[in-house]
Write a structure and sequence with these properties.
Number of domains: 1
Strand content: 5-15%
Number of helices: 5
Strand order of the largest sheet: 1-2
Structural class: mainly alpha
Helix content: 40-55%
Mean pLDDT: 84
Length: about 120
Amino acid sequence: MDIHRYVSPSVMSATTPSRIPRWKFWLRVVAVLAALYCGGYFVFMDRHLPTSPFPPANDYFESSFRWAAKQRAGKGTGPETQFPEVTIWNVIYRPLDSVYFRVFPRRDAEVERLRELGYYK
C-alpha cells in the first residue's frame, strides 16, 4: 500500500524532514557567523593604531575600535590623550587581532611612525 497516493502533497511537505541534513544547516550557520566575525574585524577595527603606548599594559591591544573616544590622562578626568580608549570591540576581536598580527606583523615604517606618535616607549 502506497501512503503517498492517499495523502495530499501539502501534508507530505509538512511531515517530511528537511532536505538539508541538520549538520549541514549548522555548518552553514557557523560559516556565516565566522564570515561576519572576520568581516566585522576589518570594518570596525583600526589596525594601524594600538590602544596604549605600552605593549605590556593590560589595556594594550594591537588594533583599536575605529570610532573609540580618546583616553583621558586621569581616571575619567583630565585632558584627552592621543591614544584610543579600549572598548568591548577590542575584547571581542582579541583572538583575531593576535592571529592577524602574527600573520601580518607591522612593517618597520609603521613601527617608526607609531614611535613618533609616542608608542613603543
